[in-house]
Amino acid sequence: MHAKSRENVPPRGDSPAPLPREDGLLSEAFVAIPYRWFRAFAALGLRPADVVVLLQILAIQQAEGRSFVSPFDLGRLCGMSADEVSEVMSRLTGHGWLAVEERVWPDGTRSARYDLSALHAALWQAARQQEEPAPDAPSRDPVTLFEAEFGRPLSAIECEQIRQWLDRDQYPEWLIREALREAVLANKLSFKYIDRILFDWQRHQVRTPKDLEQYRREYRQQQRAKEEAAATRARRTRRNNPSLSEPAPVDRDERYSAFYELFPDA
């Protein structure tokens, strides 16, 4: 009796066979999408067409490094017409989930980019509300929350760092949670990064949620003013020195825009 060919033997278990590397799929660029997005889309009332457009914008930003794409190109990627995409984008901007900002580079040139920071914050908050325990159940302690966001158990040193934030530095628990939120949005899950955020907030006397909201608003205004002043200086310099070559825009990854807003010199 002849042995069966291994090619005809189905894989064991219920899991599908792994994709062969020869097809090139595993060598393509991947797009990181927080699971919270999928859990909170419905809570915000986003429609399927809204989700498709938002995911394509995310994919273009991450995989191609482009911060803006026209409604016509978005429609081609989403299988929609340019008018349908424009209608979706009008609805998203009306709710505040999407913003189109104009960036002024040091050399005076201008470019548009999609800003999803408000959507990130809203989805994060909606997902958090879905995870809120019942009124008679205790809320999750900071260590448990950090482990859930980091996706792994914390080390003894990391647990001690949280204890020091609470006991030695006297940071309120809500402020530590907000710093963790900033790190999640910036895709910078680092205790050093979170500690630097907390120190910066303490230095600016952020003591209440209202203080934090005001600080964020003022900081964004200051950054816009700095960009405009830098662009003005660059134009004046080129006007006075025509032989100077125009500097290229700084290449920054838009996925970490929250990090660059906090630490512009990084």
TrEMBL record:
<dbReference type="InterPro" id="IPR036388">
    <property type="entry name" value="WH-like_DNA-bd_sf"/>
</dbReference>
<feature type="region of interest" description="Disordered">
    <location>
        <begin position="1"/>
        <end position="20"/>
    </location>
</feature>
<feature type="domain" description="DnaB/C C-terminal">
    <location>
        <begin position="144"/>
        <end position="215"/>
    </location>
</feature>
<dbReference type="InterPro" id="IPR036390">
    <property type="entry name" value="WH_DNA-bd_sf"/>
</dbReference>
<feature type="domain" description="DnaD N-terminal">
    <location>
        <begin position="33"/>
        <end position="131"/>
    </location>
</feature>
<protein>
    <recommendedName>
        <fullName>DNA replication protein DnaD</fullName>
    </recommendedName>
</protein>
<feature type="region of interest" description="Disordered">
    <location>
        <begin position="218"/>
        <end position="252"/>
    </location>
</feature>
<comment type="similarity">
    <text>Belongs to the DnaB/DnaD family.</text>
</comment>
<dbReference type="Pfam" id="PF07261">
    <property type="entry name" value="DnaB_2"/>
</dbReference>
<dbReference type="Pfam" id="PF21984">
    <property type="entry name" value="DnaD_N"/>
</dbReference>
<dbReference type="InterPro" id="IPR006343">
    <property type="entry name" value="DnaB/C_C"/>
</dbReference>
<dbReference type="InterPro" id="IPR034829">
    <property type="entry name" value="DnaD-like_sf"/>
</dbReference>
<dbReference type="InterPro" id="IPR053843">
    <property type="entry name" value="DnaD_N"/>
</dbReference>
<feature type="compositionally biased region" description="Basic and acidic residues">
    <location>
        <begin position="218"/>
        <end position="230"/>
    </location>
</feature>
<dbReference type="InterPro" id="IPR053162">
    <property type="entry name" value="DnaD"/>
</dbReference>
